[in-house]
């Protein structure tokens, strides 16, 4: 067997040289029309864009922010930056037009944190992105990927495995996003851990090759490292849908899995719940999901009810019960850390709720709290559960989750803080081990302490998901310290507001958890703050409420959009 490529640049060269029939990146639009880029074409276009970057003044080692949606230009820009010897920094495009001021402020902070010399985008995004230049002015400015790709191709750079391959930002659920620098060796180690686990459980054979289907944003590690890099390193094909297409019509994801023979596809828990709620039977005519062996569920708390509902709902289209696979990971480890066994049905544990609030996961036969096992560590990775004092705890003891492994970052980019101690990182998450498998109970900073007992906010939030009129996955529970001690506040976005909605939420929470909220506030859709990957920001929600800033986004009209475009054009003109 030939040695594995040591860098992403080498992996792209090998994939292009092998030129396996059908392998490459397939981009679908909302109408399911496809643009196919075979790996040789990906490399050819990337070499041209690399030449354009160098001509624009980008030097090897510089960092380049990429603000692009899911389209061929993203592949051009990402791989072109690598082939120029620079470091790509994927950032999310401005998708919430009602929150543009917030977007520019957060994005400018990330451009500065990455010390980027350029921002690469496309003409459509640049219509509103120009205002970013009023907040931060990279040395090489705002560059158009659709123009750069027509430049004279350059010679590919030759980075070492220890050189930075990319910068990605932590999710920022409890603090401002932090820049995570990852080397070629680290990202490939994680991609290979995923691929090796899949190939070990489900070996390929003649006529049966693995391939992925994803709607996840490419600026997110789950979409980039978890989907594109495995398809590049083990040359195969990956089918990519725009996130906004999935959100508008979730059936597109399942139809693409069937049409292109997808075997692996990751998504956060809300996506599986959305498919159960919004996909109609008539949208799945002729669909066959039997080849889908790894339906990975991660990136946010996983609800047992969601897994069961998805499994049962799509069984008649061939979905196998063992396909649903809970996983756990984080940006600081490049991506994946644990996988539930791919060839077995997902497992849950039921524990006593009162004991859990005291830090012990005591098993019960019925009732209590049901939690999902996210499995043992991937090969080469380690997981320990430790007390606040750093003492390693035994099984079924709740503590801080610490991880180690070959893709773990060395530290945050250009920062003095060193969160890695003796090769281990405190993730900020809480959980416990059962038979070597990890069970996550929540974020340490999000834990709500009521009358001396700890409560996971997601247990409270899930209770209101079933209330008629509540937007699924759009509630946050927070602890608010008032004059009478810590109080329980719940903020809920309404799909269909009605007078009794808050009272119904209170009853649902009381029934599911025994807790009595001190406040349930019903909000308009889009009010709750989110991270770039769509996770709700509990602490920020409370801060905005305290400051009377928890308000819905401004409505987007043609006039407002035209105004945003005009301000963008003016900003770009000022900073020429």
Summarize the biggest pleated sheet.
7 strands, antiparallel
- Total helix count? 17
| Number of domains as seen in the coordinates | 3
> Per the principal axes of the C-alpha atoms, what is the gross shape?
globular
Instruction: State the CATH architecture of the largest domain.
Output: 3-Layer(aba) Sandwich
Mean pLDDT: 91
Low-confidence stretches: none
**How many beta-strand elements?**
26
Structural class by sheet pairing and helices:
alpha/beta
Helicity level = 25-40%
- CATH top level label of the largest domain: Alpha Beta
CATH superfamily of the largest domain: ANL, N-terminal domain
Radius of gyration: 23 Å
| Alpha-carbon distance between the two ends | 52 Å
CATH topology of the largest domain: Rossmann fold
Question: Could you give the topology of this structure?
Answer:
Layout: H1 8-18, E1 24-28, E2 34-38, H2 39-55, E3 63-67, H3 72-83, E4 87-91, H4 100-114, E5 116-121, H5 123-129, E6 142-144, H6 145-148, E7 164-169, E8 179-183, H7 184-201, E9 212-214, H8 221-233, E10 237-240, H9 243-248, H10 251-259, E11 264-267, H11 269-278, E12 294-297, H12 304-313, E13 324-329, E14 336-339, E15 348-351, H13 353-357, E16 369-375, E17 382-386, E18 399-404, E19 420-421, E20 424-434, E21 437-443, E22 448-450, E23 453-455, H14 457-465, E24 470-482, E25 485-494, H15 501-513, E26 519-523, H16 538-546, H17 558-574
Parallel strand pairs: 1-10, 3-4, 3-5, 5-6, 9-10, 11-12, 12-13, 25-26
Antiparallel strand pairs: 1-2, 7-8, 13-14, 15-16, 16-21, 17-18, 18-20, 19-20, 20-21, 22-23, 24-25
